[in-house]
User: Fold these one by one.
Assistant:
Number 1:
Amino acid sequence: MNIDMIEAAKKRLKGHARVTPLLSSPFIDELAGRRVFVKAETLQHTGSFKFRGAWSAVSAMEEATRKNGVLAFSSGNHAQGVALAAKNHGVSALIIMPTDAPKMKIDNTRALGAEIVLYDRIKESREEIGEKISKDRGLTLIKPYDEPQVIAGQGTVGLEIIEQAKELDVDAKNLLVCCGGGGLTSGVAIAIAHYAPNILVRPVEPVGFDDVTKSLAAGKIIKNKDGSGSICDAIVTPQPGDLTFPIMKKYCSAGLVVSDEDCLKTMAIAYSRLKIVLEPGGAVALASAIFRKKDIDDGDVIVIASGGNVDEGLFRSALQKYGNSF
Amino acid sequence: MNIDMIEAAKKRLKGHARVTPLLSSPFIDELAGRRVFVKAETLQHTGSFKFRGAWSAVSAMEEATRKNGVLAFSSGNHAQGVALAAKNHGVSALIIMPTDAPKMKIDNTRALGAEIVLYDRIKESREEIGEKISKDRGLTLIKPYDEPQVIAGQGTVGLEIIEQAKELDVDAKNLLVCCGGGGLTSGVAIAIAHYAPNILVRPVEPVGFDDVTKSLAAGKIIKNKDGSGSICDAIVTPQPGDLTFPIMKKYCSAGLVVSDEDCLKTMAIAYSRLKIVLEPGGAVALASAIFRKKDIDDGDVIVIASGGNVDEGLFRSALQKYGNSF
């Protein structure tokens, strides 16, 4: 993995992925006690940054291999990204999704033309199912984060942030990233280390699923105790990736951890102040900027709002609880 | 009013107003039966395009006049735009708002540092109140639409659309604009007539408040019967402006009319498919693309999503009713 792969992915994504805006609000600045800049990847195609990695991977494949189709396992955002990237390349996609994935994510993935196989997140291994189907049907597996071209695609978020932050005269010491397996975090970290080494990239995770934060602190991979139990479905992964962890260890600073409740509050704040829809897992970075301010270095802060695929019932309950609190 | 004023406004807005993205979704394309491109002005500072016109007007004032402060009357979006533009220019703002304006709009305008005077939308004339205070206190009135520099600022939305549509290979015959007094519609119409004369600009209004549609059909200004009664508060104006109507008459094609219920549906669709928050009045143009498709010329269509300042209760009810319907 290196910066050249990210630059190459940027070229392949041009005209296909969206350049998402870097948003801000004086009201959020006041809540956070500093200027906060929000990279709104929720506005990316399929509602999350995952489309970048998926497009990067599918577009990098040899035509002869690609035409046999692709396969992915995902709680929903990588699923939708791969489904749309495959569809727009004219090839088939099979996606393995957990039975407890948000309904919207399963429906969207199917509507984007993918074939869906459901599995039990607790009892079954998606990796095993994926490898078996991949072998049986000649499909190429596109892993959600431990895959160089996926990491390269996610890294293009970092390239855009560097450019946009310059235009807006942002002087940030910390860039906070919603972190699951670490594909986005490691890709962005490589880009930032290359072009803006003064900015520290920091993963943000939900309470109880802070495997990356713990692993970075310990210097070795540490697994989460539980397999499920957070509303942040998009970033509940068992442990950092074999490929992403060494990158994060090299380039990232200490992780931050936020509660599910802080995510709900942040969803209500992003609704009223930025006019964007965030899912819980896409809200953790902004949540940490607002609710963990003492743990963040002084100065402006940049956060990635990574996705917005949230069932309307959960979104409504966030608004009902906190819509008038901030 | 001419294109040079819009180009000049663009220069004054650079670095202050946000270049908002032109969004799309395969799901919305399917609902509309064509490609739909959504200019997301809900992502503009203060949550609506109104910041552009406000910044344009405040930045165009002579310094000696500006320092005495500005005054505006508005149901809330122009209010917030003027409040922030004044604040960022270091001058005071007094805003006259109807008592029935959404709570969020009143709160935000106050939080942006403006002084608020409330009036009764039915019994009192905001124009009369405004002119009196303006005279008494030496404040410069910035009208919400019948003001050349405001129209020029709103017209910059059209300049951006032309550029972005070119990048995305959009081939549209209709550009649909949420229309109240006609400031946005007339500004955009001048820009489009100059740079993309093949695109027809069409105002969109809520049922019962289709004064522009009726006036365009009659060739003369026709007032609405009622003063209130639509959820589309942002675009419920008594009649087209004296300045904006001749421009719309010269450059615009027939108007379109949508129901409040279609606006609620569209808010739910924009939530789930674009991840943006729309207020009812900011949703009418997209609503017409989806629910009035037979009345729109064939080919791609571009719509402006003009604002997103909606109280959370109303937004929740839109999601509850229609969140799972599309």
Number 2:
Amino acid sequence: MAYELYYWDGIQGRGEFVRLALEEAGADYLDVAQSGAGAQKMMEYLHGRHGYLKTPFAPPFLRDGDLVISHVANILHYLGPKLGLVPPDEASRIYAHGLQLTIADFVAEVHDTHHPISTADYYEDQREEAKNRTKAFLKHRVPKFIGYFNRLIGANPGRSGLILGTELSYVDLSLFQLCEGLAYAFPRAMANFDQDYPLVAALRDKVRDRPAIAAYIKSGRRIPLNESGIFRHYPELDQDPG
Amino acid sequence: MAYELYYWDGIQGRGEFVRLALEEAGADYLDVAQSGAGAQKMMEYLHGRHGYLKTPFAPPFLRDGDLVISHVANILHYLGPKLGLVPPDEASRIYAHGLQLTIADFVAEVHDTHHPISTADYYEDQREEAKNRTKAFLKHRVPKFIGYFNRLIGANPGRSGLILGTELSYVDLSLFQLCEGLAYAFPRAMANFDQDYPLVAALRDKVRDRPAIAAYIKSGRRIPLNESGIFRHYPELDQDPG
């Protein structure tokens, strides 16, 4: 039976981290919100209509038969072994999950660059605060997170240019997505990205060239980044590289 | 061999969610940062001195023999079955993990009430923004998250007053911690908490009365909440209940 991915329509958002894993593995899946009445089907879960153990707090969530799995990192931890996208030993699986949770924290911080005060208000109502939050994010948080991942790639004894072992993992796919999102949102600030984080940049290129990922990008099924998602390009938030 | 918990000294913070599980289960553990040279030992991990698969991004992390596990939810997902703090079936374990990740998101939002602009700056430098973020947090986010947990407790077919099945889980312990933290940080705004979220409040009382938790609270080992942690009491951020 096909996996069912439930996520908001019209944005890459957090759903894209799951889509990349499903696409890389060539898995059979249905992107429910992109189909007729998909949004309504999703809301039925969020409103508890499917009952016990099937009421996620928010999308994305994945249905696999009788299981409903919410949160990107939880979904990828579940799918990793099934899709061959994580080394099979326990230490690697646990470490990969920790890395993905660090990525989740970073994604939340990216979101807050344009919504530092309230998700209930428009960006335009918190633009000045967004400028200050973005400034701190670019100065302190990007180097802290992306520098960490760059160091880990260098420390991987597999010398594969990947973050874990010698085979592509879902963490690599998510790092690719971070790179693409940052470049879209902050093209000026990221002008020196490849020099500053050469191993992350090389990993990004390696992922982009994977046949399944290249085909997915070409297919038109990958929703373009836009100003409704997590990574948004507001020129007034962008700045010269630090 | 004892578990080793690595976390910042002097605050409950994110480490407390792990401590509560270890305490409830009567597990043998060492709270490393509370011991001599503990902070230095922790930094060795963060600086990558222990090598591959043992370089967390941030505390808390747990060492169990040769495994190093980072992020609260990852740690509790690992410990849950070992400590008997999660139902043993896969669907429950996955759902419990999703709930804990929702709690992690909420905790990050609690943190940002006093640091909405930059973690690199003092609270006093972002006090006005903190007032606005807190206002939105109390109006929109507390009802959304705590209301969700209240509904789930009511929908548990185990009719145990717990969030999963009929036995206490690590998620219940974490919900207790959220209640205690919110009451400490926002005593005015939470004045009607028990009426607004009666099932969560009853669960909190149930956890507080567990012999092991009561003994832990009495022991003096539970670090008092303070203004260096996640839940901080700044009277100017508190407000009348909405």
